[in-house]
Specification:
Helix content: 40-55%
Low-confidence stretches: none
Structural class: mainly alpha
CATH architecture of the domain at 5-143: Up-down Bundle
Largest sheet: 2 strands, antiparallel
Radius of gyration: 16 Å
CATH class of the domain at 5-143: Mainly Alpha
Strand order of the largest sheet: 1-2
Order of helices and strands: HHHEEHHH
Number of strands: 2
CATH topology of the domain at 5-143: Four Helix Bundle (Hemerythrin (Met), subunit A)
Strand content: under 5%
Length: 202
């Protein structure tokens, strides 16, 4: 399937909306829960997600090289509310006419990328981060097979070179994918998650 700029923006919106849904299920006692992101509790994960939204929004508007846009806030206050504001900002930036035709500077990925490819990175990241949050809370994801298939197609294109994976890089080392894995499980394993350890969200 050929994914147009409009298609990837819509897919990204669906993933971000699902991440918003599961983040907003969290109650005050949940922010200290462990997540599939090693060493990060739910509050830290949502702080990271918030910073990534703001960084990608800046990149869509030509300001991706400004480090301040990517910095995590030390005080999240109401994490779900702060996250929603950032998610609204990135969705608006991606929806601007011509956004997917621009170059996005993405320092964490080591360079600049065509807008459509950059939005693909954001899309697959938010399918995975929505799962991270769902796993921490013990709830399932609500994403269609079409969305999960598109995420898998993107995950398969992420370079598996160990030098580009792990601490300090955007993605964790890929894990083996058992035969018969569904698209969500395969996406998660290709990007370093262990879905079998978090069965409620599988």
């Amino acid at each position: 399937m050929t994914v147009t700029g409009a298609d990837i923006v819509e897919l990204d919106r669906i993933a971000v909306d699902e991440a918003l849904r599961v983040v907003e299920l969290a109650e005050s006692a949940d922010w200290d829960r462990d997540t599939p992101c090693a060493g990060w509790n739910l509050r830290r994960l949502v702080a990271h997600m918030t910073a990534q939204h703001l960084g990608f929004a800046a990149a869509a508007r030509g300001a991706g090289l400004e480090a301040a846009h990517w910095q995590e806030s030390p005080d999240m206050g109401d994490p779900a509310l702060v996250h929603r504001v950032a998610a609204t900002a990135v969705l608006a930036a991606f929806a601007e006419p011509g956004a997917t035709e621009r170059e996005f500077a993405l320092p964490e990925l080591g360079g600049s990328f065509p807008g459509r490819q950059a939005v693909r990175f954001h899309f697959v990241d938010y399918v995975v981060h929505a799962w991270d949050v769902a796993a921490a809370l013990g709830v399932g994801l609500e994403l269609s097979d079409d969305v999960l298939g598109a995420a898998l197609a993107t995950a398969r294109r992420v370079p598996a070179d160990p030098a580009l994976r792990g601490p300090g890089n955007a993605f964790a080392p890929a894990l083996d994918v058992p035969g018969g894995s569904g698209p969500l499980d395969e996406t998660l394993r290709l990007l370093g998650r262990e879905p079998h350890r978090w069965p409620a969200a599988a």
